[in-house]
Amino acid sequence: MITIYFFYGLSFLVMGIIILSMAKKEDFFYWLKDIWLLGLFGITHGLNEWIELLILSEGPYSSVFLRLLNHLLLPGSFVFLAAFGCQALSRIDRRMRWLHLIWVSGLLGWVLGYIKTREFLIPGILARYFICFPGTIFSAMVFSLVIFRQRSIKLSKIVMANLWLIILIFPSYGFLSGLVTPEANFLLAQTLNYEKFKYVTGIPVQFFRMVCAIFLTVGFGGISSLFIYSGQELKIRGGIKMKFVLLIVALGILILGCGIGMTYRTSYQILRRTIIQNYLQIAQMTARTVEVSFDNDVKNIEERLKSTFWRSPVIESNLKYVSLSSRQIQGYLLAIDQEWIKAPQNDLLVKNYLGNQMSVRLFELAEHSENIGEIFLTDQYGGLVAASGKTSDFYQADEEWWQKTYADGKGRVYFGSVEIDASTGVKGLTVGLPIKKNNGEVIGVCKMFIDINHYFTKLENFKIGKTGHAMLLDQDGSMLYDSDLSALDRGKISQAEFKRISENTDGWFILERAGSKGEQMFMAFSVVDFEKVVEEKRVWRVLIGQSVKEVFGPLDRLFFRYFIVVIVMVIIMSFLGVIFGERLSKPIVELSRAAGHISEGNLDYRIHIRSNDEIGQLAQSFNQMAVKLKELYSNMENQIRRRTSQLGEAKEILERRVEELEQINKVTIGRELKMVELKKEIERLKEKSNEKK
Question: What sections of the sequence does the record tag as coiled-coil (predicted)?
Fold first, then answer.
């Protein structure tokens, strides 16, 4: 979950930064005056998810303060989302002006919910229902209008794809974050909640929210950060320099991510295996401690039973049955047993048995031993020989432990179940040991009742971290001891888990702690191998339990270390990408600038690129082209100048000829005019002459 919350928060933070860094005067969304609200939603919601991460990691900080901040940031971030959707819609479509401040009602609902309940669960659910969900729907409507209101603009396929991605993801996120809530006895939270969602899908809802956040970040990166609106055309921001920077950063992050990812995966697996092995070793060592303690107890008594001092009273007791038949022996023992049960502590019968030298030694042994609650000897027929104290019965041959220990004269070590001894009232276990002669003949039985708390002392002081504790299970899965009394008991271990424990000598598993809300416990176990009593199938298991969060805390710390390394390396790669992008694009930009100067007629402009690569060769060719263009231009000017001079001379000659022609024309025209006038005068004179006649 920590990894999910990390990338969940990171995605929204990146989305917020992308939106807030938009060049709004040049961007395709320049008319969205409220886009900054969506950016603030990304920033605040990303921070809120990281606060949730810190709470889960249980680090050295105030969880109370973090939870308070978490409860306040959650509705605050949703308010920015809803405000963007409402205000943008009211600005785009005048018919929706009533939506302008509708988000305030959701905020008031959150406030009233807190005032009424004085807790943050119900107000948080209200914020999701009435602020988050409507906000995502309204935001999706805003970007739908981008497509339908801008049909006159030819959008590139990548921009159109990102717009549709945003439109589809916003409602999906609205469902996952606005309607799937923590469990509560309130509205839909009873049936549509985190637990039910995980039960149906098998995956926490936070994972799907993280995926939505990543897609939204990609969508806004595609339309808001990389592309600008110029006239009627969308162009990629930054040109070739941006391409170089993006290429270098992308390749660097890809290589870095693969390298660090593989290193992290390897380190993670090694560390995880090491942690598990360490806990298995702790369980094994603890189990061996119990084994050694038990073996020492048994061997100590076995060694004593080999001594003449311990055997002699038993042999003497057996001699009194030599002349008796089996029925007589049985009757004798049962009669004494009846007297024994009724007899008080100071009765002569009791004193005779408890006052003998062997009983005194047994009393001293039990008195000074930390773990022996009761010890007594019987003869080969089950009659009491000596005891550390008054037993509940004199006749023991009818007891299961005695019969299994005597084993029809074969003799074997008996290991009983944990029980409360009727004589002493102490909780412990019965250990039966055969008393044998040197030739192996069983002559009696020794019963030792071991106080089970003796073994618990080996576990009592066991502690790992804050939640680590040791447990002891018997062969049936009953909890014999747990140093953490609030932890597991048999009823809280499922049949499948107990079967897994039963089928393996050593191992580990993870289970959900009963009574907790999803808290998981890591359990490492090892068998206590009672080598001498394996026939009785009395198998104990030592379990070392600790909170999963605490056990695998080093893995989380490893993740954060690698995360810091990745962030630092990404910053370095971005910085280097800008530097190298600048250096790589500078010659091309210089060539573009030179082409502009040449196109404007400045043939004296030269490119100063001193490199031996193709760009340098291109620069030299460009300079040579400029020189040749200038020479060509100069030659053309000379030719034009000569032609102009020749045309000038021809013009002068032509002008002189025109003047001459004009003068001739003037003389000719003058003569013609005079002839016309003369003709008119002659005609006039002729008319006058005719009149006189």
Answer: 619-671
